Inverse folding.
């Protein structure tokens, strides 16, 4: 962000500022490249690991709107549900996954007969990658998504409200702290944002 805002300034930087800028940009690029889609924890912008701290108010999960949810214009609704509940959005971007990224994301399902069609579908268009933070967000996120099978999902859940078929169930959510750590490291190698939400005192008793 710093690099971007400096680069868009209309006044030319001095030679020393330019050197600092080049050094900063080289360092930032190196961090992103080094961690790109690697299965490892990476530091976020503040002191927390990108996956937060499971079991606390700073637990984090990886939620995604799949290509069908993006095509059907459900991104705003899905974000709004988590925002209104009181959860904190700490990472957000649109990514068009390659087949390889889809395979890595769903690597635990590699032996399933539907793995090929699932990864082809997941890489068929852009997805919305999100990192959400808050108390019990991993389990609560799964509940808000609904069941894997949309026909078994309750009205009020995302899948229960918007989907019918298993292979077009709109959204993804990490199912455990281990999965959240793996998925957040993969999709947010650049880290996320440790910002303070000023209304938290009205959401959490403590
Ligand atoms: P989840 O998305 O609820 O975590 P997983 O079991 O991890 O469910 O499966 C990943 C995705 O693969 C599901 O969301 C669904 O779109 C698809 N899927 C799961 N089971 C089947 C199946 O039996 N046939 C076809 N697609 C499936
Ligand atoms: Mg899953």
């Amino acid at each position: 962000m710093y690099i971007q805002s400096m680069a868009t300034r209309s006044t030319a930087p001095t030679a020393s500022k330019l050197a600092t800028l080049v050094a900063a940009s080289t360092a930032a690029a190196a961090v992103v490249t080094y961690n790109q889609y690697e299965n490892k924890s990476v530091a976020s912008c503040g002191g927390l690991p990108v996956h937060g701290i499971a079991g606390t108010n700073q637990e984090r999960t990886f939620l995604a709107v799949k290509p069908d949810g993006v095509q059907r214009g459900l991104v705003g609704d899905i974000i709004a549900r988590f925002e209104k509940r009181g959860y904190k959005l700490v990472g957000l971007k649109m990514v068009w996954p390659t087949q390889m990224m889809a395979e890595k994301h769903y690597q635990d399902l590699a032996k399933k007969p539907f793995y090929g069609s699932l990864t082809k579908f997941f890489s068929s268009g852009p997805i919305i990658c999100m990192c959400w933070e808050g108390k019990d967000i991993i389990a609560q996120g799964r509940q808000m998504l609904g069941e894997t099978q949309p026909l078994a999902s309750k009205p009020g859940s995302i899948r229960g409200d918007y989907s019918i078929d298993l292979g077009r169930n709109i959204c993804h959510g990490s199912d455990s702290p281990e999965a959240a750590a793996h998925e957040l490291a993969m999709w947010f190698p650049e880290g996320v944002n440790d910002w303070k939400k000023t209304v938290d005192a009205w959401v959490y008793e403590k």
In short: The longest strand covers residues 88-95. The longest helix spans residues 15-35. Strands lie at 60-65, 88-95, 127-133, 171-173.
